[in-house]
Amino acid sequence: MNKQTEIKINRPLATQLLALAQQSPDTEIHGLVGAIDNTPTTVYPVPNLTGNKQQHRALQTLHENGEILFAVYRSRPHSPPAPPANRLSDSAYPDAYHLIISLNTKGVLEMRAYKLNEKGAQEVTLTV
Q1: What pLDDT digit, counting tens, does each position of 46-90 carry?
Q2: Domains detected in the chain
Q3: Distance (Å, rounded) from C-alpha 121 to C-alpha 128?
């Protein structure tokens, strides 16, 4: 995957991610985002990102649909949309973008994108 400094996701996909986060305001949500031609197309919710059967099934479906893994996402119900260093540094998906959705401020949802590099997580401009 190339090292873009800006990524774009369409409004319906962003709305879907934000809605999933709002449905579980006190619990982190996780999942994968598939893409075709480097354009994010499909959200695959999974219970967590630590190698469970649903995660493997989502990856298999993603590949069967001709998609590549574009991003992993998670919500942060009670903290800002910044990645905890220990979660990204040992990420099973170092080439994917990491989308963090924050529910930290009542009434305001915030989503940010990060890319791993040798220095850790670098924020990438996210455009909807």
Answers
A1: 987 666 788 889 999 999 999 999 999 999 888 777 776 555 555
A2: 6-127 (3.40.140.10)
A3: 21
